[in-house]
């Protein structure tokens, strides 16, 4: 199964210059290699800060695009890794191994399998 | 060697060796987390090397060695990187003898006993055993237990943290400790079996898989540790399983043992169970599982309900009630007595069992009472007892059965 590991962090903390944060940052590239070596890696991208982002929305057929998001929350989505893992526990173990899990948090989301019916809410 | 051959060998090794490789790596690397990482690395290395170098003669030993090497190598690199973690450095440098020659079976037993450790919450023991020993995925366990995958995942994560934090030893318990620790293992397996067997709700297929998985675990355990009670539990599960198709009719309604079509019973499973019971009984140290299995075997071997050897069943219950006095065992003994000596004696025995307490909220106690009253022609009392049982019963199939009995009595009363 494929899982998306969504990496959230507080930029003030991650880029604040603390030795822990700097160590975590320097290990990030290495962790991609670890995942490649073990055969879990599918793809990964780090994201620029939200100040370089746009948000697009269509309402009543009209498109609006605003800059941002500028959310009040301190933690922001900063990167995505897609991995292939046999189950959720294995995916969670791999997510916990990411250096940024020590500074921020990594959300593990199963990638939708379109052969199964959509959820009923 | 062709690529396809190597791939087939690898897939076969994944199916048959994964659990044993993991069990040994946990011992060698000192924890679940490192072992799981190493396991994955080992199979990744095999996918790379086997097509080139050929399939090793002993895939288990190759995988253990490759997994351990990869992990120790990674720890070395990390230690250099962080210039920290002195204990890991020591481990990486000491290069302990790769104890592949040691009895692999001990590692599998260690894994089972650790997953069923009494220090873990009962729910966690089940989830951990199914995943680590049974090889089910978190998602499969969640589907079988009709719950969400993150719930099961958390249970497993917490259990592993507990094993690590409390430094639960990864070992086969010593003789003195064995009965109590084995009891926890057997309980976990039996709970898994019953979850799949008793449920008549939900996606029945996945639930039946749980019973099959429990039987597989039971066979594994018996292969590793031929203790009487392990043999007894496996025999008991096989005897239940042998009757699976006969216990529910086409409409999904429950069929009582006495009304079941005995030609549907799986004779092969019954013979296997009988064999296990004989092996277990030879030790002369009987316990509740082997006794329950022996009782189930007497039922299984009766060609018709009228030919059931009720005397033998009552005698076996007498021993069971003595070694493990429980309200339910006393109730079952009373019901068997009713079959041997007639409903009058049965009614008295069921009444006595209920007076000793612990059965008031148990629907089957009231149903047993109702059954004796019905056979004695005391229809009003029987109706009241069936009504009480119906109030307490939760399972749809059981409720339908009780309602049908009530309807029969009401029809007769008019």
Summarize the structure.
By secondary structure, chain A is an alpha+beta fold.
Structure commentary:
The complex is a heterodimer of chains A (121) and B (414). Chain A is α+β, with helices and mostly antiparallel strands. Chain A has a single domain, classed as Dimeric alpha+beta barrel (Alpha-Beta Plaits, 2-Layer Sandwich), CATH 3.30.70.1060. Chain A has three helices and six strands. In chain A, strand 3 (54-59) and strand 4 form a beta hairpin. In chain A, 24% of the residues are buried. Chain B is mainly α. Chain B starts with a helix and ends with a helix. At the A-B interface, helix 2 and helix 3 of A face helix 2, helix 3, helix 7 and helix 8 of B.
Return the CATH class of chain A: Alpha Beta
Q: What's the architecture of one domain in chain B in CATH terms? A: Alpha Horseshoe
Structural class by helix and strand composition of chain B: mainly alpha
Q: Please give the count of helices of chain B.
A: 19
Number of strands of chain A: 6
The helix content of chain B is over 70%
Shape of chain B: elongated
Q: Provide the CATH superfamily of one domain in chain B.
A: Tetratricopeptide repeat domain
Which tags fit this structure?
heterodimer, A: 121 residues, alpha+beta, Alpha-Beta Plaits, 4-stranded antiparallel beta sheet, two-stranded antiparallel ribbon, 6 strands, flat, B: 414 residues, mainly alpha, Serine Threonine Protein Phosphatase 5, Tetratricopeptide repeat
């Amino acid at each position: 199964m494929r899982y998306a590991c969504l990496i959230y962090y507080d930029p003030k903390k991650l880029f604040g210059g603390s030795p822990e944060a700097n160590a975590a940052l320097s290990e990030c590239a290495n962790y991609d290699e670890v995942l490649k070596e073990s055969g879990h890696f599918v793809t990964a991208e780090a994201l620029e800060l939200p100040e370089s982002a746009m948000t697009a929305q269509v309402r009543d057929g009209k498109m609006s695009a605003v800059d941002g998001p500028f959310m009040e929350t301190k933690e922001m989505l900063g990167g995505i890794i897609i991995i292939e893992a046999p189950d959720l526990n294995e995916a969670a173990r791999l997510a916990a191994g990411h250096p940024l899990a020590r500074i921020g948090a990594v959300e593990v989301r199963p990638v939708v399998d379109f052969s199964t019916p959509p959820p009923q809410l | 060697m062709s690529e396809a051959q190597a791939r087939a060998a690898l897939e076969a090794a994944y199916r048959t060796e994964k659990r044993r490789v993991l069990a040994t790596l946990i011992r060698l690397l000192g924890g679940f987390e490192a072992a799981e990482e190493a396991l994955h690395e080992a199979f990744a290395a095999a996918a790379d090397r086997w097509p080139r170098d050929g399939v090793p003669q002993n895939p288990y030993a190759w995988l253990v060695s490759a997994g351990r090497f990869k992990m120790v190598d990674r720890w070395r690199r990390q230690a250099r990187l962080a210039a920290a973690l002195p204990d890991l450095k020591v481990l990486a440098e000491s290069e302990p003898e790769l104890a592949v020659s040691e009895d692999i079976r001990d590692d599998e037993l260690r894994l089972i006993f650790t997953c069923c450790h009494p220090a873990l919450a009962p729910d966690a023991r089940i989830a951990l055993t199914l995943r680590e020993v049974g090889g089910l995925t978190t998602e499969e366990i969640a589907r079988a237990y009709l719950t969400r995958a993150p719930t099961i995942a958390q249970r497993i994560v917490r259990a592993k943290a507990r094993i690590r934090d409390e430094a639960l030893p990864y070992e086969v318990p010593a003789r003195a400790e064995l009965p109590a620790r084995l009891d926890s293992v057997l309980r976990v397996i039996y709970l898994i079996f019953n979850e799949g067997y008793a449920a008549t709700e939900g996606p029945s297929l996945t639930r039946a898989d749980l019973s099959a998985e429990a039987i597989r675990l039971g066979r594994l355990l018996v292969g590793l540790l031929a203790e009487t009670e392990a043999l007894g539990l496996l025999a008991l599960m096989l005897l239940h399983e042998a009757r699976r198709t006969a216990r529910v009719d086409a409409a999904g309604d429950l069929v009582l043992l006495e009304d079941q079509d005995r030609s549907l019973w799986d004779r092969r499973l019954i013979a296997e169970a009988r064999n296990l019971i004989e092996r277990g009984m030879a030790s002369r140290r009987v316990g509740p599982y082997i006794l329950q299995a022996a009782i189930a075997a007497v039922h299984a071997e009766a060609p018709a309900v009228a030919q059931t050897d009720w005397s033998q069943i009552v005698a076996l219950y007498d021993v069971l009630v003595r070694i493990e006095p429980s309200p339910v065992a006393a109730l079952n003994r009373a019901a068997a007595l009713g079959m041997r000596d007639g409903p009058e004696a049965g009614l008295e025995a069921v009444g006595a069992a209920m007076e000793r307490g612990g059965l008031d909220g148990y629907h089957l106690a009231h149903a047993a009472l109702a059954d004796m009253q019905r056979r004695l022609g005391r229809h009003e009392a029987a109706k009241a007892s069936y009504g009480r049982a119906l109030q307490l019963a939760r399972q749809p199939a059981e409720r339908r059965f009780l309602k049908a009995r009530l309807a029969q009595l009401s029809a007769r009363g008019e």
